[in-house]
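Deviations from the work plan: none for this task. Representative record:
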Amino acid sequence: MKFFDCNASFGKPMIKPIRYAETARDLLEEMDFYGIDEAVVFHSRQRDDSPVVGNKILMNEIEGIERLHGTLAILPPQTGELGSLENLVETMKAKNICAFRAFPAEHKYLMTKTALGSLYELMIERNIPLFISVNESCGGISGWYLIEKILSDAPDLTLIVTEHGSWGHDRFFRPLIEKYENLYLDISRYELDGGIRDFCDKYGAERLLFGTGFPKWNPGGPILMLAQADITRKEREMIASGNLQRILGRVKL
Amino acid sequence: MICSDLIKEFMEKGRSDSCPVIDMHQHMGPFQGIYFPNPSPEDMIRTMNRCGVKMGVFCSHAALIDPEANIEMAQVVKRYPDRFRAYWCINPNYPEGIPKEINQFSKMEGFVGFKFLSDYHKYPITSPRYKPALEYAEDHELLVLMHTWGRSPYDSPALVEKLAEKYRHVTFLMGHSGYGEWERSIQVARDYPNVYLELTAAYAVNGVIEWMVKEAGSEKILFGTDLPWFDPHYGIGCVLFSRITDEDRHNILHRNAGRLLQPFL
């Protein structure tokens, strides 16, 4: 089974994890250890530093590495820090960038239509997915209120929520899954016993994406959980890689 | 991919005949802040069969709240003696009933010891309210599974150390391995023969299993899942894909627990 990780990062984070991959090459070695084929990635400096600095580091690091697909950290266009939207798209095309990523708590901006409306329009027009970690945003109830706010402002946005935590989030996300068809969930911490099967029985396998949360989390957990999930082989393959490939295949740069 | 016979077997079949897992940290039944697809004893047994878990030691969610629910767990063990053992939960919010509870406990089969949930019950594990249970456990060489969390005022590894020093014949299982305060937890497990690191939730933290094995030894680590919370395959996967030997994996997944449970089987 091919594994395509929707949630991995590399770089030297401000808070040192027990284990991490400092460079893109180090990350490839880690992926080889776990048998992971490809990954959508960000660099820790995109989160811990200015996104302007971090985005450049990411693009330099992953240049020429086909197994790694980069995501650019966004900011409200009003400050002009990331340049024009047209230039942003050109950069994405040239540098193997397939998606955007938001760190609103760290980078201090509001995820509202007022702040990000033009970026939302760009993402919807070009099918560019937006990744957001519900834990890094706020976590728990506040985090899911934010997710609903984003989707109510931009219902056609492809939103990939990563790392939603293991302590029972189904009551938060299932109503949103039913209402917003472009909402996807990373399973890196969807540890609920019987959760994947129960979810697939109700909503199908299209909305779940394999992720590891590397370096913070141990990739072995989601790997064995998905490999042995009580669903069909086809559903496992969709979650492991097919869904993410489909989402990225729709991106128009 | 990493080369290991155990990994190959679990990835292909979901379980291993040579590695029958023992889950030392389970619950049972529905609970407050979470939706469970598989909360009943029968649901849990189905999951355990799928994941190659031969035995689980549990404390029901109801017993975490109401001491009177402890007795119901004996019925589950009686129904499935080859699959379950139980921990009797001591809720220090109801101290007046604890002597009577210990008397009941002493007459019942199927229990391996006590469960303390101090972060939730809001009394430190060193509170005198736990003393009757600890003294009974000391006299009868029982297991005590404690929820432990790093820097908690109720159940930090430093508090575990105080109990381990005082009650040398109690085997203390540090549930969640003092999550977050890894260095101190590992030190306590290394220094005290009667303290074990229990992996529920902790296993997800990348690199922590290797650290525990290196500093405390795989003989001091126990596997647990909080079932029906977490899919055992998730935790097993974390153990399997850690940079340790298959011998270490066997110790963690079943050998150590088998040794501790021997007097209760």
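Chain A is about 45% helix and 15% strand.
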